[in-house]
């Protein structure tokens, strides 16, 4: 699917900013980085390093000079924001293999970039992962890790919508046709008996595919009556007078569902396995640091969001947004199977291909080395 009109933001390729961020961090000695230093942020890779290690010497891993990584400027992609941002745990694990990052608004555009080779690895939602894998007949990507659960809500204008029974005739925004929130909303409406054309978004309830940056403006102007969106957009709408009508966690067993995976091009995984492992080590270490240092992590996420969007989030937005997301390594593979069926019910997929979509062997190798339990692929792993 082609990118949206937000390409100037979402598809702008940026050369690696980690060096710039590190220089700014050292110069400013900001509180978050002081806290990171005090709690040993990044110490794992430093402790493992030796004079002979690629990381210690700044050597390129697998002989690769650059790895291209995609993600969204969302709190649900907090692992990427922190791991590639000021703390730089992912870059530390990569040594002399430099990160070149690219920001996207929604999953379909990122899948397009992955298929074209514009990125090698990406943080992304489950629905575009399923769609991309299915359309390529299982040849385009592998899911290699989880990253986050939760962080999605249906937020509405309480003057227009007072209950879930008031959705008929209303206009609800999602980030992009076929993205994870779009599929979730279409599935939910179908279960409630509403008829909506999946492609056009027209029906008993109208779905307006809207860039997350534009959604708060459309909400204020009354162009939409609500939105099924990830954090921090959901909390932005609440700060602007919206009401959370439904937290998606309530629709899932134990309140857990995958909202962000890490994917990789299959060709890249085969050719540069040590680079992939290094990125996964950085991700695992970053998630551990986020969960051990929530206040500092929240600030670190907000610092990167400020750099990406030009404006930091106020406390009334970043606090609940961060609280609503769980950062974890487990891909929650069983929930991906359910989300594939949601796409079928929504009319966006006819026969999703899931066999072999996961390759969790590199992740489980990293987890084992860190003394952590392995994670399961729900029978959907590559052979």
From TrEMBL:
Family matches, as Pfam families: NMT1_2 (PF13379)
NCBIfam families: SsuA_fam (TIGR01728)
Keyword list, A-Z: Cell inner membrane, Cell membrane, Membrane, Signal, Transport
Key word Phosphoprotein present: no
Keyword Transmembrane helix part of the UniProt annotation: no
GO molecular-function term, one example from the UniProt record: ATPase-coupled transmembrane transporter activity
Main localization category: membrane
InterPro entries linked to this entry: ABC_SsuA_sub-bd, NrtA/CpmA_ABC-bd_dom
PANTHER family, sorted: ALIPHATIC SULFONATES-BINDING PROTEIN-RELATED, TAURINE-BINDING PERIPLASMIC PROTEIN
Record's GO cellular component terms: periplasmic space; plasma membrane
Subcellular localization, as worded in the UniProt entry: Cell inner membrane; Periplasm
Family: Belongs to the bacterial solute-binding protein SsuA/TauA family.
The protein, known as: NitT/TauT family transport system substrate-binding protein
